[in-house]
Amino acid sequence: MSNSLQRVAPANPKCSEWLATKPFVSPANWRRTRPRCSSCGSSTTPPSKPDPPSNCTILNQTSDSLSLECSEGFDGGLRQQFVMEVFDAASGRLVGNVTSRQPAFGVGGLDAGAGFKINVYAANRKGRSPVCYCKSPPCWAR
């Protein structure tokens, strides 16, 4: 085994430029000699509101129930949940409200023969996404 030192290059290019001026830095000395700058750490995107669900489709509709499934969007970097709100199209009255960890929903006990407006959105600790709404499949983002 050789006693030669290895060249250590951090992932951040700005720190690599600094390291290039130091011909050989051992892994043991890197911690003591690395520049103290925020550009040398890992960067993360701050959490944000989630993107809206997309491609929402009514999979099954009976006289008094319906099931709907969507594709989830970006979660904003946080755990998200999905909400489906079902409104009577004539009165605007909320007749169903379902929350789920997955963008798949089922609701029953609906009035037979009534029309419905369906809102679907994602929510996390930073807020809620724009609403996808349906009057009939498919659903659109508002």
Automatic annotation (TrEMBL):
Bias (Low complexity): 36-46
InterPro entries in the record: FN3_dom (IPR003961), FN3_sf (IPR036116), Ig-like_fold (IPR013783)
Superkingdom of this protein's organism: Eukaryota
Region (Disordered): 30-58
Name the UniProt record assigns to this protein: Fibronectin type-III domain-containing protein
Organism (species): Callosobruchus maculatus (Southern cowpea weevil)
